[in-house]
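In the laboratory, one determines a bound structure by crystallizing the protein with its ligand and collecting diffraction data. In a computational setting the workflow is compressed into a single prediction: the sequence and the ligand go in, and a structural description comes out. We illustrate the idea with adenosine-5'-diphosphate.
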Amino acid sequence: MIREPVLNALILAALLLVPLGALAMDEPFLITLATKVAIFALAGVGLNIALGLGGMVSFGHAAFFGLGGYATGVLASHALNYDPLMTEPFQIEGTTQMLVHWPVALLLSGLAALAIGALSLRTSGIFFIMITLAFAQMIFYFAISWPAYGGEDGLSIYVRSEFPGLNTLDPIQFFAIAFALLALALGFSSLIARSRFGLALQGARQNEARLRATGIGPYRIRLVAFVISGMITGLAGALFADLNRFVSPAMLSWQTSGEIIVFVILGGVGRLFGPVAGAGLYILLEHNLGGLTEYWKLPFGFLLLAVVLFARGGLIGLLAGEKRDG
Amino acid sequence: MAEPVLSIRGLRKSFGALTATDDVTLELRRGEIHALIGPNGAGKSTLIKQIVGELRQDAGEIRLRGEEISALPAEARARKGLARSFQVSSLASEYTVLQNVVLAVTGAQGRAFGFLRPALSDPSLTGPARRALARVGLGAREGVRAADLSHGERRSLEVAMALALEPAAFLLDEPMAGMGPEGSARLTELLSGLRSEAPILLVEHDMDAVFALADRITVLVYGAVIATGSVAEIRAHPEVRRAYLGEEE
Ligand SMILES: Nc1ncnc2c1ncn2[C@@H]1O[C@H](COP(=O)(O)OP(=O)(O)O)[C@@H](O)[C@H]1O
Ligand SMILES: [Mg+2]
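The predicted complex, in structure-token form:
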């Protein structure tokens, strides 16, 4: 067994060293893979706040991931086409600046999470899962049927968005951006978990009646957590759009929601670095098994089943043992 | 006479054909321990659940310091000053003893929306929490997970969490059930001193504890109050002896 903080540091170091090594060996594709891991992990860190800390099994986080992606895509495409977003009552131009895309992505996904959470959190269990799924599907079909932004075909971003002082077209510099945001989100997530709010949130998961008896209403606590969760996943979506220079309704699909859940479960539900370990393992398997057979998801499915049945703490639980608080 | 802290009037609750609370009227006065006794299934827990808001009554009113609270959800009643302990221990089992009580202090302060400062390094939370733990004798066990506590320790932790709320009234549902004699004695002493801080509505099966502690006793049978009075009055009450105490002796 490794102590969890040590394990976390090792995981973070590995995620940093792989692309640096790839840079030295001139393997840009590896850098892109590492960037993908960082972005998926960020999406998972978001979900982990709802799922891991709050026990809210959201099957609709693709909604936030996709909205974040479309925030980048729509703003960038308007800028690249020199076509203002709107002219009445005042003119709003598109932009290629990440520093504008991100707040818009956070705002959009946060508002969506507020609306979806406010309704879904009146239910629990399987109903919560199905309602979050239903809302995400609504947004998915809306994106497909709205031709202005590519509909089913999606929307290309011809040039990756810009960040002041960096050349985002250089893979390692874009990786650095994704890595920095992931590190920030992990730090924030760790603070939240130990805070009063985190204490109440995890208390709501463990024993709702007890939380009420201490004078804390679980609904508002969960709703705020759901919004924070959706915003972080939305930010990951904004980065994902820039990574691929492309957004499409696929980002909003239920498969995407499922993948984000898989990152969290594979790595360890409620474990700070669970989503990082999970996303890393997922990409590793996809890359290796996926190279061997198109049907890699079948053995992968068995692996997932094994984790759910035998290793509830996921990869982190396997290596660092049971979760310890305080 | 001063206004009672808690006043229940004409309370009724049925589960289908079963009347679990049958026109119950009851007062909890300042400074008293009011014991609620009755055979198993008499409706004692059901009454407590209606007072704290876990169940909604069919009819009747519940006033806390004069204010009707029946429409409020459980968390709002807790904030108004009702602290309960559960008959079956109900804790955050993954949390340590200290985390459980810190959670209660957080609720008592009404400030659950702090995001950045670690709760366990906030003396305004851990201070009151540790004081409550010391009072129930769990001071040395603060780092143990609630799930790993003995049954008696869990009962004590329930009481510590109620203490941490600094409530206007305590509603304790069989706090001594399953505790060893040492634990019971300790808790009896604690409760006895506690009544001056806030009155206690005490559901308890241990008649020695009840007779030692109670200022007044209400006897519930089949959901209805058959007698209310002092310890001496209840001991002498013929109907009570027949319906209830007779079974115990
Ligand atoms: N949720 C419920 N649904 C149906 N019947 C209940 C429920 N809760 C309690 N009862 C019944 O109400 C009666 C009173 O129960 P309870 O209040 O737990 O008694 P006590 O605490 O005095 O032992 C019992 O007959 C019990 O079976
Ligand atoms: Mg009972």
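Residues B 44-45, 87 surround magnesium ion (ligand 2) (CB under 6 Å). Keep in mind that any predicted model is a hypothesis to be tested, not a measurement.
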